[in-house]
Amino acid sequence: MAAETGTPTTLTLKSNDDELFSVAESAAILSVTIRNMVEDGCAGGVIPLDNVDGKTLASVITYMNGISAIPADEEKKKSYRDKFLSDKDFETLADMVLAANYLNMSCLMDAVSAKIAQVMEKKSVGWVRRKFGIENDYTPEEEAAVKEEHKWTFEGVETDDDN
Amino acid sequence: MQKKEDFNINYRALPYDLVFDVLLHLPEEDIYDNAMLVCRRWSHIIRSRDFVNAHRARHSTPGLLILDYSLHQKGKKTLGFCGNETRQNRDCRFASCNGLILEYDNFSKRAHKITNPEINQRFVVPPIYPQMPYHRFSSIAYSAASMEYKVVYIYDRDEDASTLRCVIATVGVDNSRRDVCTQHLSPEAKGQLYRNKTTTTEGFAHWTDAKTHTLVLTLNVETETFTQYPVPQGQDNYGDKYYLSTGKSLTLFDSGSNFFMEVWEMKLETGEWTKMYKIDLEAQKCNFEHFRSKGCSFPFALKPVGWLKYREVLVLRFSHMTRFCVAYNVLTKEFDYFKL
């Protein structure tokens, strides 16, 4: 949109730990945040991304390049996303979802959220708390009450009462 | 709140809307077995109205619940609790709200039961009295303000209309129940409450009458008040009328002929009716001929049974015995058949 000439424009992105990355504008504008900056004309020099570290940004740029190389085929894009996320650990995924949110990339965000949920499946409450860095703020009574409530909602299929 | 052991921990404390997005992808079992127990904030997210709606929209297999006395299906899954026995010997009654089914059996005077066909689980609602009175058409509705399901009991003693009462009980909270005042209702409205089955549109239960067709009696389960709303007087007083819930509003099908009907929608708060569409399948009549059964003396017609997708796809059944239904897209006017 902003590029009037036919030659591909390259943008320079800067992570919050001062790493610099070159990326094709056509791939970078998958991020609505970056696109807005480009459209507002503030992309002349280096685009500082204060909420993303270098490691995560490198990963996001790999994704941007990969996905923008795929023609408009939702199936193929989806399988690229799945493959891209398949080897990422929880910490990387957590960083990515924050970055995708900050960069306003809804497709990546949705894919990463789904992946995080997939990793969480069948894990214990303790595991989830540890990974998310959450402290249990329930009192033992409250915790028991929540369990009890759940039991109520999803009692197994009862056999018919006889009388 | 966060531990200070290392600064990395902070980034994992995802903001509210990101946790919301992640939890949205979790299956129901994990939500209730785990996520709910993680912390107060998560349980708060899970209980929020937005989350419940979004999660349901994402995880529910689209299905149609047909409440008919001879036929109970959800999607392609037949519900296990209703066999021939029910139809022939028992006075079994149903109501439904948000995909949950309220079921009760007047013959054996058993307790009311709530079934979630999605996860195939069932819950027994304790009886309101040890000696169960004669129940009319009970109803189930959802109070969004308190996030509770309410069961509305209509009952009388010894089949005497003057003993008619309406009682609301809150599901799963305690055994408290409250009487709803029915004194101000017109005799006709009381008759409707006494005789007719209900339709639920989330927080509202409606009693309608396909024959007299003059008013809709609506109970708001949050304010626990009854209101009588007039019904638009359509084209033909002799045509059949059908009322269907869309979940959030009530639609009326006013049939002018066997294959033609006008569709109206009622605003729940005001009782205002708006004419939405005309469904005219007269021209397709010949296509339907092979669903007609020869020996049947009833007029051969189409009856609406439910919205598959509101304002778009409607499911209709034939008045003659057949397992085939018609799915009709009211926008494109295309239709297709499917077999139950």
From TrEMBL, chain A:
Span of domain SKP1 component POZ: 11-65
GO biological process, one term: SCF-dependent proteasomal ubiquitin-dependent protein catabolic process
Pathway in which the depicted protein is active: Protein modification; protein ubiquitination
A Pfam family that the UniProt record links to this protein: Skp1
InterPro entries: SKP1, SKP1-like, SKP1-like_dim_sf, SKP1/BTB/POZ_sf, Skp1_comp_dimer, Skp1_comp_POZ
Annotated GO MF terms: cullin family protein binding
SUPFAM superfamilies: POZ domain, Skp1 dimerisation domain-like
Coiled coil segments of this chain: none
PANTHER family reported for this sequence: SKP1
Protein family: Belongs to the SKP1 family.
Function: Involved in ubiquitination and subsequent proteasomal degradation of target proteins. Together with CUL1, RBX1 and a F-box protein, it forms a SCF E3 ubiquitin ligase complex. The functional specificity of this complex depends on the type of F-box protein. In the SCF complex, it serves as an adapter that links the F-box protein to CUL1.
Annotated protein name in UniProt: SKP1-like protein
Organism: Erythranthe guttata (Yellow monkey flower)
Organism placement in taxonomy: Eukaryota, Viridiplantae, Streptophyta, Embryophyta, Tracheophyta
UniProtKB/TrEMBL annotation, chain B:
Name of the protein: F-box domain-containing protein
Native species: Erythranthe guttata
InterPro entries: F-box-like_dom_sf, F-box_dom, SCF_F-box_component
SUPFAM superfamilies reported for this sequence: F-box domain (SSF81383)
PROSITE patterns listed in its UniProt record: FBOX (PS50181)
Recorded superkingdom: Eukaryota
Pfam families per record: F-box (PF00646)
Taxonomy of the source species: Eukaryota, Viridiplantae, Streptophyta, Embryophyta, Tracheophyta
PANTHER family xref list: BNACNNG10540D PROTEIN, F-BOX PROTEIN CPR1-LIKE ISOFORM X2
UniProt domain F-box: residue ranges: 8-54
